[in-house]
Amino acid sequence: MHPQNPIQTALITGGNGNLGRLIADRLLADGKSVIRFDIPGTEPASTRPHETIISGDIRDQQLVESILTEHQPDTIYHLASLLSGSSEADHEAAWEINATASFHLLKCSVKHGVRTFFFAGTNASYGGGLTDPMPEDAPQWPENLYGATKVAVERLGVFFKLKNDLDFRVLRFPMVLSPFAPTTAVTAYPSHALRAAVNHSAFVFPVAAQTGMSTMFLDDVINSIIDFSYAPRSQITQHAYNLHGYFMSVETLIAEIQQHYPNFRYRYEINPVVETLISNWPDTIIDRHARADWGWNPRFDLAQSVTHMLKLLAPPE
Ligand SMILES: NC(=O)c1ccc[n+]([C@@H]2O[C@H](COP(=O)([O-])OP(=O)(O)OC[C@H]3O[C@@H](n4cnc5c(N)ncnc54)[C@H](O)[C@@H]3O)[C@@H](O)[C@H]2O)c1
Q1: What is the mean pLDDT of the chain?
Q2: Dist. CA 21–CA 42, nearest whole Å
């Protein structure tokens, strides 16, 4: 429990997405009121006490302002976004949803007295040529539009923090091991390999055995967002924090899978684009400030993540 946490009403944009619904679960369990805002067609089947579901497009500025006027959230978890693949597929929409709508939401937050604004950043906001371990002050020069929109919002949020005292907070996540990883995301091959293992199907790895990167388990992503957003403002010394869980290569992943499924079948078919992307990503990301300032401490190492993922993915008995 976090007795000193003053959050009462939180708006979660992208509130029906993979992270959004898990954040909603945690906030409701902690007795907060939650407004989940997401696009039509993503609504949950039912609504719980203290939970409001609102459907619409975050680009609809009037609607967004009316939500803040009516519900007066003290905290916003801004998760609505096009992810990397969809951002490359439609640059215009990516800029409007990820950047312009965020700018408007930040302006509205100041106008309507929102206290804390959490933004989900990403290590895709860094480009290539990074040193490994990656230091906390590594320059951000993203090479895809998704990363560019994320850096843009980080800078906008800091502008409103400095100018209007908005308590703007950012976490940048590495690769996330998740049972909900979209099947179309080729870089999510570790999550897909675990699914193949429980289904007893053979898996084709798109990168070499030693290739890997800094990774976190989904539950630790949610833990980090909750712990960070609940931390008193006096503990926050940085505009944005990088997080690191553990290094995971294909061969270390396979070794863990084989602890549970000794007959796991796999082969390699290297996809040069994915291979380059993952090889350029740091194996280790320095996250000293997150650990020192607000107590970041991943609860899942690789073995625990794999055990947990396999349980979640296993078909019901
Ligand atoms: N899961 C990860 O691996 C990861 C890593 C780094 C950063 N992030 C960030 O965390 C946030 C949540 O990610 P996620 O994994 O839950 O992704 P997700 O795609 O499941 O969630 C994003 C949500 O935004 C909603 N959305 C998209 N366009 C919208 C619009 N025009 N109006 C309103 N809502 C809209 C989607 O419907 C979706 O529910 C995103 O900002 C993402 O960039 C996620």
Answers
A1: 95
A2: 11
Residue among 38, 77, 241 whose CB has most ligand 1 atoms within 8 A, to mutate: 38
Q: Which atom of ligand 1 is nearest to the CA of 188?
A: 3
pLDDT digits (tens, 9 = 90+) for 32-54: 999 999 999 999 999 999 999 99
> Class of 9-173 per CATH?
alpha beta
Q: What is the DSSP string of 157-217?
A: HHHHHHHH--EEEEEEE-EEE-TT--TT-GGGHHHHHHHHHHTT--EEESS-TT-EEEEEE
pLDDT at 1 over 50: no
Domain ranges of the chain: 9-173, 177-214+245-283+299-312
Q: Cβ(18) to ligand 1 under 6 A? A: yes
Each residue's pLDDT tens digit, 164-201:
999 999 999 999 999 988 877 778 999 999 999 999 99
Ligand 1: does its nearest atom lie under 6 Å from the Cβ of 191? no
- Ligand 1 centroid to Cα of residue 263, in Å, is 35
Predicted pLDDT of residue 211 = 97
pTM attached to this predicted model: 0.95
How far is the centre of ligand 1, averaged over its atoms, from the C-alpha of 260 (Å)? 31
Which CATH number fits the domain 177-214+245-283+299-312, given the four candidates 2.20.28, 2.60.40, 3.90.25, 1.10.3130? Answer: 3.90.25
